[in-house]
Amino acid sequence: MFPEFGQFSLILSLLLAILLATVPLAGSLAGRASLQAFARPLAAGQFVFVAIAFGVLTYAFMVDDFSVAYVANNSNSLLPWYFKFSAVWGAHEGSLLLWMLILAGWTLAVAIFSRRLPAVMTSQVLSVMGMVSVGFLLFLLMTSNPFDRILPNVPTNGADLNPLLQDFGLIVHPPMLYMGYVGFSVAFAFAIAALINGRLDAAWARWSRPWTTVAWAFLSVGIALGSWWAYYELGWGGWWFWDPVENASLLPWLAGTALMHSLAVTEKRGVFKSWTVLLAILTFSLSLLGAFLVRSGVLTSVHAFASDPTRGQFLLALLAITIVSSLTLYAFRAPVVHSRIRYGSASREIFLLLNNVLLMAAMLLVLVGTLYPLILDYLDMGRLSIGEPFYNLTFSPVAIAVGLLLGAGIFSRWKKTDGGWLARKLLWPAAVSLIVAVLVPLWMGKFEPWAFAGCFSAAWIVSATARDLLDKSASRQGRWHGLRRQSRSYYGMVLGHLGLALTMAGATVVSNYGVERDVRMSPGDTVSIENIDFAFVQIGERQGANFRAETAQVDISRDGRKIATLYPEKRQYTVQRSVMTEAGIDAGLARDLFVALGEQVGDNAWAMRIQYKPLIRWIWLGSLFMAAGGILAIADRRYRIREKVPVKPAALPDREPDAGRAVPEAMS
Amino acid sequence: MKRLFLFIPVMLAITLGVVMYAGIGKDPMHLESALIGKPVPAFELAQLENPDVMLRKDIFNGQVSLLNVWGTWCPACRDEHPDLVWLAEEKGVPIVGLNYKDNRDQALQWLQSLGDPYTVNLFDPSGSLGFDLGVYGAPETYVVDAEGIVRYRHVGVVNEKVWYETLEPLIRKYSREG
Predict the structure, then answer these.
(1) Is the ipTM of this complex over 0.90?
(2) Is the whole model's pTM more than 0.90, yes or no?
């Protein structure tokens, strides 16, 4: 199959995207239903041709077509087939194609699942997504063509995939992350469409919600996968480095979390409309900013992406057009009238507003920390530095405050909450959290103020959520009946919040009570950490598919009882001649034991990094909980019932029926 | 009037865009330092190994040396460390360490297990000298000549390539002048 077919179908999909960006929008503005009807077929066509392009590139990898420059640079005939597959998105051009495939996929999903939306809304949303597609397809075709050929001197073999990326985590990490990044384009498109036709109402918020939640769930998993991968593959045993690229994924996550909560208020109470629509624009803009920071090479990062000024300029232009035009539209069209809806000082509205304030504060901290070197460089004042200490000092208090607010906010009611009643509700959770926060340091054997605060906050979320669940499920027909009566979106919220508590607990405990030791060991030596003995038994060599490895055997025992045997490795990849550390990890819910083999430091001695990581798995487990909560929330009945009862296109429901409530406050 | 406030986001975005446009094409590894050609800022810091010994900028006098900013919290420093050890042992380069915003016990343990390439280590837990030098983050390495004048700044990891292509010629040049 000719790689040029791939390029050709990309060009076709660009043409379709241009039509998608203009025809349905024009139709909706002119009120011509015949033009609006083009939206769905165009979205489908665009997806088909991007998928063909993706398939052609995948095929080129599978059959080792080294005449394609991108394949030659990122693959090798020795590479196992599954890494050949993941190598498709192993570098810039291919990951952009993946990005584009996912964008086209989301557009198609909107086209399929929007049948009950008014035609005007659907065509405008799809048009806006078409505009985003046009930008990225142009970027792909003009600066980053993955189908460029090396002719006539075709290399006999490829330069191999970066060994860091030859790993399961990297097969799934980018697709998940992109599903999240690009998924926010749907919420963005809804926001722009609502601004264009001036229908910023509860219905708009309700339509945006499931899309935002799904994208957020994917992003949560994507970030966790990246963190997990960094933990076991980079060989340092850290799980978060506040690296620009990591921060770039955290920014839209924080804004997206705020958006989810703000959408809930707008849907239920019809307030914060201007703020919510701004958040929708901001969230997607931050996704694009992330793409720019990663791809343009303006910041140093452990993620070694090749930087290219043309690409940076193109992406920045794309970013500028998207953000400036959408924010200008916002400035002209966002409602400024005060809603007449009132709410009291301890109402759920206020709690969710504070949640947004804190999340925005956290987002700004990360944004400032990430862009600081750039800004200082621009102002010619190379002073003051930012690194992990900055984030630890500033981000942790905000995270803890979010947890504390969350626990109280769960109980709050719309419109107004009685302060004394709320305080009485919080008595038990406060007591339980205090006990947990005292017990954890006692158990770990050392008091740390941050550990106390973090554990308190995490326990507070869990105990408040549990208390709320108990309250809500009280029923005369028994607990089981009461539990079953709760909606899926309520359980989604419970799961999401528990996930946050898990992640928080894990991060707190591992940062405060993790033990790291760098030691020099010879075969026969034993090192003891937290009463666990690590015995370096022997070291040998082995030959992998495309690498040679030095493998150490480390026996781990406690009180003479054997726990595990680990085989940490140092791999020398033959083609790229690079050395990788493959850590040996004994994973467990309560703790990880981590051994990395370092340099040979003497005749018969090696540097070893031995770590004891309590609760580290909770960090990633928590994100799975959050994602599961998001999926559960969109599986709620109110989203499914509507599919069976077709709503006439013209009939826009102004307020939603009582049957579907995200948070059934009326039930207690 | 209120509508004017709604223009704030777009204004902020444009400002940020201008800053980012200026950043394109600049190699982030090549950050100019305002201090090049100027003396190392005055300081008085305790020695890492011995809190009672106070060190001043006269430690740079007499030979061309490298000033390496590091910390145990910095993963890239771990990458760099074997190369520093190699520089110190094989090439005999005097390296002054600036232990930056770090914890003394952890730093000492790090040196004990990974090897100590430094002739002397400054302990700078608050980052005061780092601030005066304009450190963006660790690791950074400065070439300081025999008069204590900053000659070059390298941001990022020092490895064999950086040594042969950049640092060694500089050290040779300033040693000859001195």
Answers:
(1) no
(2) no
